Amino acid sequence: MEVTERPTEPITPAVTLPGARSLSIAACDVLLRQRGGTVVGIAAGPDVGKTTLIATMYELLHRRRMSSFGFAGSETLRGYEERCHLARLSSYASRPDTRRTPVGVGLEFTHLRIATSGGMRDVLFADRSGEHFQAILSRPAEVKEFAELHRSDAIVLLVDLARLVTDTHVTVSGVRRLFLAMDQGGVLEGKTVTLVGTKADVAMSSPRSTKAAREMTTLADELDRRASGRFSIGRHIIACRARSGSAVIGEGVEQLLAALLAGGPSRPRRVDDAWPPRPSELDLLMRGYRGARS
């Protein structure tokens, strides 16, 4: 039997593939006008699990690990492969990891085309560094510059369950302030808003563990009261990595995707040709809404 030896040269901790890693705002606008789709804004501070979530969603889809959804393509396939590389055996990493979104990178989008029982759905996930959201905590008025939150059909607010358990006050305060900044900035009205607890594999020894779930429920109830019936807040707990002693990945991810797609597909909108000579990020993403109102 032939034995394949492990490479002796140092292993690069990440892989970079040629081609489009993400969609720019302009490319996102073109895709939405051609096909329609669901735009998901993800609000999260650094290292909460935003990139891990969208990478896990891709892995489960294209490996046929979701019972209700199928993988039907992606305009950012190389970007997803780069994000997933460090979590695969081929990376020779000592433990699963996810490549973080660099601080200097502005707003970008990843794309998934998903086969559902009702037909094909295009979903675009906003991707920006968690440090950008952390800055909102001290400068809440800057939320108006976050074009993807204004344009999104659904907004996911992530909370690190491990931190929620070990440093409850600070974690709750950060999530509360981010929520209030978005609410006061007018980006939550009429949206599907979902509070998602991440890293359950670390914070909960089993799906039945109570402490993290209890803190999550308390936080979700508080945000629901602050919404005052203007919009409802869904809640999900996910474990993108396998728990200790388990090989199951992506607990709760399929249920979260189902909730994000529950509102039905967003159709392409006809738009006029009148356009500012120097459109802003918000202009580009709101172009479809302008056309619908004209």
How is this structure best described in words?
- The chain contains 11 helices and 7 strands.
- The chain is of the alpha/beta class.
- It has a 7-stranded mixed beta sheet with strand order 2-3-4-1-5-6-7, sandwiched between helices.
- Helix 1 runs parallel beside helix 11, helix 2 packs across helix 3 and helix 7 packs parallel to helix 9.
- The longest helix is centred in the middle third of the chain and has 17 residues, at 168-184.
- The radius of gyration is 19 Å and the shape is globular.
- The chain starts with 24 loop residues before the first helix and ends with a helix.
- The model is unreliable at 1-19 and 85-94 (pLDDT under 50).
